[in-house]
Specification:
530 residues; alpha/beta; Rossmann fold; Isoleucyl-tRNA Synthetase, Domain 1; 2 domains; 6-stranded parallel sheet; 4-stranded antiparallel sheet; 20 helices; 15 strands; 48% helix; elongated; binds 5'-O-[(L-methionyl)-sulphamoyl]adenosine
């Protein structure tokens, strides 16, 4: 194991009152690709996901269904876990906020914050809609002419005691931290949004509720329930046992803190970029390195919503698995998803085009052409040939294969580490494109007709086979199954490798290795219609 710092990556924990859909699968898949890449590079990784199970919404849904909130949480959390298996996701733990290990540590954290004065009992007064059991802001109350928009009954002036977190006290500290860490929130456009909102000034936030009971009881004041968001954010620390540093869990896992990436969707950025860091400051815990907020998948140009019924849900995703396979789905998620500040449109036609262009016509075509020619001209055995000093093309100034490929390896690894996952995929594919280009340029299938050219054919095919192998190593984090299949056909595997740089170093495919025919992605006639 390398001496580098262990790596920690997290997804949001998902609400159990929702069914899993493309959005949840997307964030978790991105984290999985990163986790696999870092493991392949010899780093010790902890990849966490889970479910967020408390709160008024879960309590309400359970009531409507006539079951207990815990039963609803158990059922839906199990569904989220099934998704992980279905998508080949390699999380190291799955945390549930109703687990005793989480609840007990949240209480410890909250007690610490009360002791330090960061959480205090305050009073809130406002306009209250009794029918809806909710407060409305002063402006909204005025607009409503002080009547409930639902029942028409007058709004009442109500007072409530709540516990508050002293967020306002962290304005200056957060500003200084943000200034010193320009990569703390990515992409940068999202960071600017946070900085803009910070200028309005931070207000203390309520951390308890009294109008429902499905949650963690406030220590010393059980009529108060800890607000679901505060409860949920702590999951990142409780999973490592940080609430009780003397625990066996902390002894084993505390080394993973702080997280390298909290990967989230754009709608929950404020909680992760402002409230959570302030809580960590109050607890004296080191800051996460980066909060990465991606944008949203939309469906055929429209926002996905319950009312439109256009969620890309599990049955729909299953139909893509059936037609194109899991790895094709992962490729599409990783390279075409809303990782930047723009939403991405999921369309069957676009999926089909990307599958055909990148996977069938590029990756599979090269792996298959190379292995078939190897079979035909060299009885499926890798010939001895010096490819390292051979230029990748006849064009003047073209780099040698070893220079070109080793540079692509270093670049791909950097992209993975920096969470530039689409760029990592593209960079790995650039090696396949170079293989394709040399086949088209030199036409080994024509040269092979002339027995005097057999050494030249051997050199070309040896370079092609090594190129395919290196690309398959680099693409493994995104397409683990298909790459393992290609690597096995090329007589190798990534099991037990010490680093990507070693595994993908030019020259790894030794003369004499058996190379078998393979065709990892088959042509599909028409897009999936669901
Ligand atoms: N429980 C909170 C998070 C607490 S984290 C301490 C929550 N849960 S959620 O079930 O609503 O999941 C939200 C997350 O799902 C988003 O942040 C994002 O990761 C993912 N997605 C949900 N819809 C999405 C899209 N349409 N597109 C991409 N991802 C989105 O919020």
């Amino acid at each position: 194991m390398s001496s580098r710092k262990p790596a920690y990556i997290t997804t949001p924990i998902y609400y159990v009152n929702d069914r899993p859909h493309i959005g949840h699968a997307y964030t978790t898949t991105l984290c999985d690709v990163w986790a696999r890449a870092m493991r392949l590079d010899g780093r010790e990784v902890f990849f966490l996901t889970g479910t967020d199970e408390h709160g008024a919404k879960v309590e309400k849904s359970a009531k409507e269904r006539g079951v207990t909130p815990q039963a609803l949480a158990d059922e839906n959390s199990a569904e989220f876990r099934q998704v992980l298996a279905l998508f080949g996701l390699t999380n190291d733990d799955f945390i549930r906020t109703t687990e005793a290990r989480h609840e007990s540590q949240v209480k410890l954290f909250v007690e610490r914050l009360m002791k330090s004065g960061d959480i205090y009992l305050g009073e809130f007064e406002g306009w209250y809609d009794e029918g809806q059991e909710e407060y409305v802001t002063d402006t909204r109350a005025k607009e409503l002419e002080y009547k409930s928009p639902i029942s028409g009954r007058p709004l009442v002036r109500a007072k409530e005691h709540n516990y508050y977190f002293k967020l306002s006290a962290y304005q200056g500290k957060l500003e200084a931290f943000f200034a010193a860490n320009p990569q703390f929130v990515r992409p940068s456009g999202r960071f600017n949004e946070v900085l803009g909102r910070m200028r309005d000034g931070l207000q203390d936030v309520p951390v308890t509720r009294t109008n429902f009971s499905w949650g963690i009881a406030m220590p010393g004041a059980p009529e108060h329930v800890i607000y679901v968001w505060i409860d949920a954010l702590f999951n990142y620390a409780t999973a490592l046992g940080l609430g009780d540093s003397s625990s066996a869990l902390a002894k084993e896992r505390a080394k993973f803190w702080p997280p390298e990436y909290h990967v989230i969707g754009k709608e929950i950025l404020w909680f992760h970029a402002v409230i959570w860091p302030a809580m960590l400051m109050a607890l004296d815990l080191p800051m996460p390195k980066c909060v990465y907020a991606h944008s949203f998948w939309i469906s055929n140009g429209q926002k996905m919503s319950k009312s439109l019924g256009n969620f890309i849900d599990l049955p729909t995703i299953q139909s893509y698995f059936d037609t194109y396979g899991l790895d094709a789905w992962r490729w599409y998620m990783t390279t075409q998803g809303p990782i930047g500040t723009q939403d991405a449109d999921f369309s069957p036609k676009h999926f089909h085009e990307i599958y055909t262009a990148n996977l069938v016509n590029t990756f599979a075509n090269c792996a298959s052409r190379t292995s078939s020619m190897m079979e035909k001209y060299f009885a499926g055995v890798m010939p001895a040939a010096d490819t390292a000093s051979m230029p990748i093309s006849a064009v003047a100034g073209a780099p040698t294969w070893s220079v070109f490929a080793n540079a692509a390896v270093a670049k791909t690894l950097k992209h993975y580490a920096d969470f530039e996952l689409a760029e990592a995929g593209d960079c790995a594919l650039s090696i396949v494109r170079a293989v394709d280009a040399i086949i088209n340029e030199t036409q080994p299938f024509k040269l092979a007709k002339d027995p005097s050219k057999i050494d030249e054919v051997a050199r070309i095919l040896a370079a092609c086979a090594e190129g395919v192998r290196v690309a398959a190593v680099l693409l493994s984090p995104i397409m683990p199954n298909k790459c393992a299949e290609v690597l096995a056909a090329y007589g190798c595997s990534i099991d037990g490798v010490g680093s990507i740089t070693d595994a993908a170093h030019w020259g790894g495919l030794k003369a004499g290795t058996r190379v078998c025919k393979c065709a990892p992605f088959m042509r599909v006639d028409a897009p999936v219609i669901v």
